[in-house]
């Protein structure tokens, strides 16, 4: 392991980091259960609970025997084949499973190789759908501020243009239609004055730009990388109504919220509405391999298939990779074979209790919990290196950003693990401020 970090610094460009002045990185020697085994610099290792579930995807933990076995079995058959002109059982079975568990109108599945690409595909679907319906002028998307949908070009264009991560690309991106961020608070009622003002503003925007808009795209219930920001299900119901009224397609980006993270299998269930297009990724494979999917209704699929071109114009090389599909099948089956909802509720209760003391600390603006997501929001930017190190000394790995110190832990964390995570975050915030 000697010299690895020096070689890393010379060769590798890490995410959201400068190559010349990089953020510190730590060498992983192994991982098991919910713990990372990090190199201690002296030839040994230290353990830390992964409070991030490796950017929210490793819901069953590391070296899960069920997922390990599924991938090993598939390797013995074949690890990859192109999906153009060929198919295979893992892809067919996974598509059946996704249609079975997703909102009822969704009947067709397009596999992608990352969450960002699934959003690209969803936007293409919306644009091709409108062309097929004779609405050639409908080339823009309606969304809300505060959102995040990925780092490739079409997803960047529907991320928050001011407070997001992509303001450097202003002018190079498609100009979309942005409504105000929904008022904060999952429990905010639909007769609340702030909600009514927001609804009036978004409704007027949709009316004004109706001839230009192909679809609405949002993260349901919880905006993720844009700020870990929960909002009321009433907002989703309003967006569904606007889509129906004006002939837009409703795209729900459940890449971060799908597979139980907010307390329901899909976050849209909180609102009792169904999308026309659904994007899933991250936890889809239990974190084992990169895979995402874009699901759509029969109306959307047939309109696009019978429109100009006669096809959805997209085809990633690694779409429907058999190893990834096998891991996804095993992950979904494992999740649904357990009382996942009860476990998420326990995690939620543990985070609520454990993070509550942070609310009274100097410099803390807000503490919030929804499902298996816990957030401490500061009054200013986080000192990333110091905050990370302070949490590590308490046995927990976190990756703060902007003004947020947060956790989205694996579902297999024990109550003791959750208490340790909450205490580490609270202690690190108290120490670093």
From TrEMBL:
Swiss-Prot/TrEMBL site (Participates in the substrate recognition with KAPA and in a stacking interaction with the adenine ring of SAM) positions: 16
CDD domains associated with the record: OAT_like
GO BP, sorted A to Z: biotin biosynthetic process
Pfam families named among the record's database cross-references: Aminotran_3 (PF00202)
GO cellular component: cytoplasm
Binding site for substrate: 55, 148, 282, 315, 399
Gene Ontology molecular function, alphabetical: adenosylmethionine-8-amino-7-oxononanoate transaminase activity; pyridoxal phosphate binding
Places the protein is found: Cytoplasm
Protein function: Catalyzes the transfer of the alpha-amino group from S-adenosyl-L-methionine (SAM) to 7-keto-8-aminopelargonic acid (KAPA) to form 7,8-diaminopelargonic acid (DAPA). It is the only aminotransferase known to utilize SAM as an amino donor.
Protein family (similarity comment): Belongs to the class-III pyridoxal-phosphate-dependent aminotransferase family. BioA subfamily.
Record text on subunit structure and interactions: Homodimer.
Official protein name in the record: Adenosylmethionine-8-amino-7-oxononanoate aminotransferase
Native source organism of the sequence: Kribbella pittospori
């Amino acid at each position: 392991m000697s010299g690895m970090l020096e070689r890393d610094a010379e060769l590798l460009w890490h995410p959201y980091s400068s190559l010349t002045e990089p953020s510190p990185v730590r060498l992983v020697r192994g991982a098991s259960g919910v713990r990372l085994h990090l190199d201690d610099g002296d030839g040994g290792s230290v353990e830390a609970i992964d409070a991030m579930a490796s950017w929210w995807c490793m819901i069953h933990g590391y070296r899960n025997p069920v997922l390990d076995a599924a991938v090993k079995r598939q390797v013995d058959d074949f690890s990859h084949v192109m999906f153009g002109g060929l198919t295979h059982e893992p892809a067919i079975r996974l598509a059946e499973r996704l249609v079975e568990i997703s909102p009822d109108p969704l009947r067709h599945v397009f596999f992608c190789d990352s969450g960002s690409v699934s959003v690209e595909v969803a936007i293409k679907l919306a644009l091709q759908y409108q062309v097929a319906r004779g609405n050639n002028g409908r080339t823009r998307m309606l969304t809300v501020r505060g959102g995040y949908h990925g780092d490739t070009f079409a997803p960047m264009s529907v991320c928050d243009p001011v407070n997001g991560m992509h303001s450097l690309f202003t002018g190079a991106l498609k100009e979309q239609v942005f409504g105000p961020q929904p008022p904060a608070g999952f429990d905010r009622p639909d007769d609340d004055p702030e909600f009514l003002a927001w609804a009036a503003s978004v409704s007027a925007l949709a009316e004004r730009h109706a001839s230009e808009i192909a679809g609405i795209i949002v993260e349901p219930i919880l905006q993720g990388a844009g700020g870990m920001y929960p909002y009321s299900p009433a907002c989703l119901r309003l967006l569904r109504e606007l889509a129906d009224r004006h002939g837009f397609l409703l795209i729900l980006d459940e890449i971060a919220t799908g597979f139980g993270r907010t307390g329901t299998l899909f976050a849209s269930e909180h609102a009792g509405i169904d999308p026309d297009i659904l994007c899933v990724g991250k936890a889809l494979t239990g974190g084992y391999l990169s895979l995402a999917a874009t699901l759509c209704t029969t109306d959307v699929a047939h309109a696009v298939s019978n429109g100009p071109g006669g096809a959805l114009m997209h085809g990633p090389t690694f779409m429907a990779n058999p190893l990834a599909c096998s891991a996804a099948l095993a992950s979904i089956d494992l999740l649904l074979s357990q009382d996942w909802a009860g476990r998420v509720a326990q995690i939620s209760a543990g985070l609520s209790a454990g993070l509550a003391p942070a609310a009274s600390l100097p410099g803390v603006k807000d503490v919030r919990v929804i499902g298996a997501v816990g957030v401490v929001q500061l009054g200013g930017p986080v000192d990333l290196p110091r905050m990370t190190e302070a949490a590590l000394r308490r046995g927990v790995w976190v990756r703060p950003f902007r003004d947020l110190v947060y956790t989205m832990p694996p579902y297999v964390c024990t109550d003791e693990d959750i208490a340790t995570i909450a205490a580490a975050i609270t202690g690190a915030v108290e120490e670093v401020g």
